[in-house]
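Think of the structure tokens as a kind of shorthand, similar to the way a musician reads notation: each symbol stands for something richer, in this case the local conformation of the backbone. In the example below we present two proteins back to back. Begin with the first one, reading the sequence and then the tokens, and try to describe in your own words what changes along the chain.
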Amino acid sequence: MSKIYNIKTISEAHKLLGLEKPLHPLISVFRHTPEMNLNIQNVSITFGMYLISLKNDIKGAIDYGRNSYDFVEGTLLFLAPNQVVKVTGNPIIDLNGWSIFFHPDLIRKSELGKSIQQYTFFDYDVNEALHLSHIERIALTEIVYSIEQELKQNLDRHSQELIIHNLESILKYSNRYYDRQFLTRTNFSKDYITRFEHYLKNYFASNQPIEKGIPSVSKCGESMNMSGHYLSDLLKSETGKSAKEHIYLQLIDRAKSILLSSQNTISEVAYSLGFDYPQHFSKIFKEKVGLSPTEYRNLN
């Protein structure tokens, strides 16, 4: 059984990696060096903080499913607090990379603290990392350098605001680069969108809604071999609609077919689609269609 580490502070993270004492209690920027301790094989680690890490020694293309990534100069990984990292085999030190740890307390009272949930890539799986071009890597590394320089100065009343500003810049640029990653893989994205639409049609045409309820975004992502957040963002980029919106579009389309082709009561239709309460179905239907299920049936 692998050992489990629960790393709650920046100091504990530095100690685990064999780094010097951090310059700030709530954020740390460090370059990957040969002195780092990576002799932590076969362990599971949870960090009580955010992690952004650039791996920059990738050779050749990276395959994901049937898709081969075209940008291989650097891979950016994002980790949210309390996610589990499993380390197996023999980790290799990436001497050209860098990492940033920052504790939620650093941004808690800031605008970033309120908006960080919108950066859904913190909940992507590892194989959904951001693959950077050379220019993109340089742009982000320059911002990281600005944070480093701020940490090396004597902290004053402006320090935290400037550090958070630079952190937010990294996240905003990463959002842009993820959009680019979706767009440059249009055929890959369209293939998954087609598969997703087929999955939903088959799901609602079967007995699964009765047995399992309305499919969640995470369940849909699992069926596509990706995280629910990545699937939703991919769909949003390609179609303008999130995974949840696609689920309800298919659900309403199926509901319309049942209402017009059967004598089932509204309650029976609701239960057949996975709703626990008919009132919830009627509310959703009216929000999406503009008519109640009964009004829609009578109109047609």
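Once you have a description of the first chain, move to the second and do the same.
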Amino acid sequence: MSDRGSPIRETTRVITAHHQQEGAGFSVRRPFPTLGLEQVDPFLLLDEMGPVHYAPGEAVGAPDHPHRGFETVTYALDGEFEHEDSAGHRGVVRAGDVQWMTAGAGIVHSEMPSRRIREQGGRVHGFQVWVNLPRQMKLSRPRYQEVPSTRIPEARSTDGRARVKVIAGEALGARAVIDTHTPIVFQDWSLEAGADVTVPLASGYRAFVYVFAGAARVGNAEAAVEEGQLAMLGPGEAVRLRGVEGASVPARLLLLGGAPIGEPVARYGPFVMNTRQELLQAVEDFQSGRMGEITRTAELRGGGSTA
């Protein structure tokens, strides 16, 4: 089922993710931005949230914070995340669900482990990816695409050793249901020992693989990319992914790629624009309340969200 006729992208660099605290103090594993890798155009950030098992009363998240000029993609693997924003949107992202939020002109957003997990404890694991927007979209109207796990397309290789969930793009005949402003591939792969799959990837895309469980061989090289490592991919028209022979656990990895936007990037915390002046305007708009605020009933405040 492999397309051996396509030039395979090889690993050009391996980066080990570092741990840091975000929001109200939750731990993330972040391969970028980091020293020497500010972004992978059009991607601005990749955070692995957890995995962590919270005891009752321990769970923390990211209380009210603004966004402008880019998109946030939340992909939950375990646990539940409650979200709400200044435009009145509220909901719960559960295991396997995807929330693709286009912040555009600006929104105040809150993401917290669910009330059940905050009160009773539980395991939380997932990803957040920041995707840049081109200049003409940076002040667009905010929008959400919330896709439950049951609607995320899945496929497997002929031998069944490789499985994929297609969040954006296409793989093994499965096509994503999410609409993206720029051409993007976002895939969650599971590779058993002996798996060997090659998937096309547009030659103009910048792309990388992030391994978050086990180990996998990327490209034709024999050296494995280990858990917590990101492999930058060089030029080519396809990506080869292989499970490690004799591995006791399947490899889990994200394959991300996208068409570079190629515009200047000015960023300050939760704002990503093209110029410093636009950043100053974003800060002023947030501080003056022009991005709004999250309004809550007494019941919601009792759920533990922080205003």
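Compare your description with these statements about the second chain. The mean pLDDT is 90.
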